[in-house]
Amino acid sequence: xxxxxxxxxxxxxxxxxxxxxxxxxxxxxxxxxxxxxxxxxxxxxxxxxxxxxxxxxxxxxxxxxxxxxxxxxxxxxxxxxxxxxxxxxxxxxxxxxxxxxxxxxxxxxxxxxxxxxxxxxxxxxxxxxxxxxxxxxxxxxxxxxxxxxxxxxxxxxxxxxxxxxxxxxxxxxxxxxxxxxxxxxxxxxxxxxxxxxxxxxxxxxxxxxx
Length: 210
Prior knowledge:
Layout: H1 3-29, E1 54-57, E2 62-64, E3 73-78, H2 85-100, E4 108-113, H3 121-128, E5 135-139, H4 142-151, E6 156-160, E7 166-170, E8 174-177, E9 183-187, H5 193-203
Parallel strand pairs: 3-4, 4-5
Antiparallel strand pairs: 1-2, 1-5, 3-8, 6-7, 8-9
């Protein structure tokens, strides 16, 4: 056998060996031979979503992110004069809680206004009576709300209406954070309830379909 043919055969053998090693590595690490690991909800570590904030809850109490530490969070930014997205999402919060049963009490459910001019603590309190009482409404000064929105990478803007009124455009996703305050994903607007509830169960450390 010529030297060139031997060299080619040696090269193909090396490629085959590396490929086999990669396949076995995948099988042992992530594939069918990997040890069983409990499913968890995690987000990309590069996304710094969530962080310090200082706001006022719908009972008039000054709060920071530390008041909600130790439990997973579902956080939604909206406003009480919203015609559809916000009441729909808060209604879905109630549906998720019903689906989770007692596990719903192991989470914090936060509604942060992007319209602090109209959404005072008292107004938030009256509005949230329409939904589940476990939802905590948060407001503050313009600067405090802007700081919280930046921490969660939420975009919002005031849109003038005819007649002198205004509405608010805003990010419509629900942000999920784990008990350590780390970003763990989102629930998108009008995402199927079954998918959303599965995400929440994973966030709570429950196995899929439990």
